[in-house]
Structures are given as structure tokens and as C-alpha cells.
Amino acid sequence: MMDHTTVVGDLTVATLLTGVGVAAGVLLIVGLIWFAILSSTRASRLRRLDVRVELARGALVHALDRRAAIASDLADIVADEQRAHAVRITATVVRSAGLADRERDENVLSAAIAQVDAGPCRDDLVDAQTRVTIARRFYNDAVRDARALRGRRMVRWLRLGPSTPRPDYFEIAERVTPA
């Protein structure tokens, strides 16, 4: 004859094992869904940050071009022909340089501007320099955020980042006041 407690005990263990298996499966599915959502949000945030870097780069280039144009105008009114020629040539070189070479050239332009009297161009030049400072800060902030997210372990391991190279900071002399 079969013992009644053995059957009940076996059913309890089987039910318990089935319950643990179901719970583990549910936890696994919830974990995978959480991981997929997290990966998706990181990838979309990285895309948004790359767009932000590109927009900030465009604003920075525009501000730098505007300052170079004002420097060219400044060269037209400078009395010292040698210094005027240095400002004019440097402004031309700056506008044709790529962003990577432009840091060095912008510092040279800043030094050339500092050597001349701005006269009637002083207000425009100060405004342009302020706009360059603000644009550079926005660009460097966007680069910092993009680099920080690209450096995260999940982004690196899953290769969620774009195939574009990491953006670099743009560092120039903060403010040069003309003589």
C-alpha cells in the first residue's frame, strides 16, 4: 500500500521546484527587458550627444569665422602696416584651416589682434570674442558629455557608439584684449 504522506510530499517538492523555475524565468525575462531598454536609451542618448556636438561645432566655427572677419576689417584701419598685414594674413589662414589646426592659428590671431589698436572695431571685436568664448564652452561641454558616455563600460562592450572618431576638445586663449 502506498503511503499517503509520500505522495503529498513529492507533490509539494515538485510544486516548489516548478514555482522556483517559473520565478527564475520571470526574473530572467525582466532582466533581459531591463538590459534591452537600458542599452537602447544609452544608444539614443549617444546619438543625441553626437548631434549636439555637431551643432556646437557649427556654432563654434561660425563664431570663429565672424571673429576672423572682424579681424580682417580691423586690419584695414590699423595704421601700422606691418601689424595690419600680420592680422590680415593670420585671419585669412584661420578661415581656411580645419578645426584641428585652427586652435594654433586662433591663438596666433589672438596674439596679432592684441598687438593692434582696435579703435572703432573694439565693440565688434569684444562681442565676437565673447561669442567665441560662449561657443567654445558649449562645444567643450558637449564633447565632455559625449566622451563620458562613450567611455562607459556598457557602451564600449556592446559597441553602442557610432563609428565616428571621438570628438576632441577645442582649447584656445580665453580672451585677448586689444591694446
Summarize this structure as a short list of keywords or feature phrases.
179 residues; mainly alpha; 79% helix
Q: TL;DR of this structure?
A:
With 179 residues, this protein is an all-alpha fold. It has helices spanning 4-77, 81-96, 99-114, 122-150, 153-158.
Describe the structure.
With 179 residues, this protein is mainly α. 79% of the residues lie in helices and 0% in strands. Helix 2 (81-96) runs antiparallel to helix 3. The chain is rod-shaped. Residues 4-8 have low confidence and may be disordered.
Structural class: mainly alpha
What's the main sheet like?
A: none
Number of helices: 5
As a percent range, the share of strand residues is under 5%
Instruction: Give the topology string: H per helix, E per strand.
Output: HHHHH
- Overall shape: it is rod-shaped
Structural Rg: 31 Å
> pLDDT below 50 for ≥5 consecutive residues: which ranges?
4-8
Straight-line N-to-C gap: 111 Å
Question: What is the secondary structure topology, with strand pairs?
Answer:
Layout: H1 4-77, H2 81-96, H3 99-114, H4 122-150, H5 153-158
Helix pairs in contact: 1-2, 1-3, 1-4, 2-3
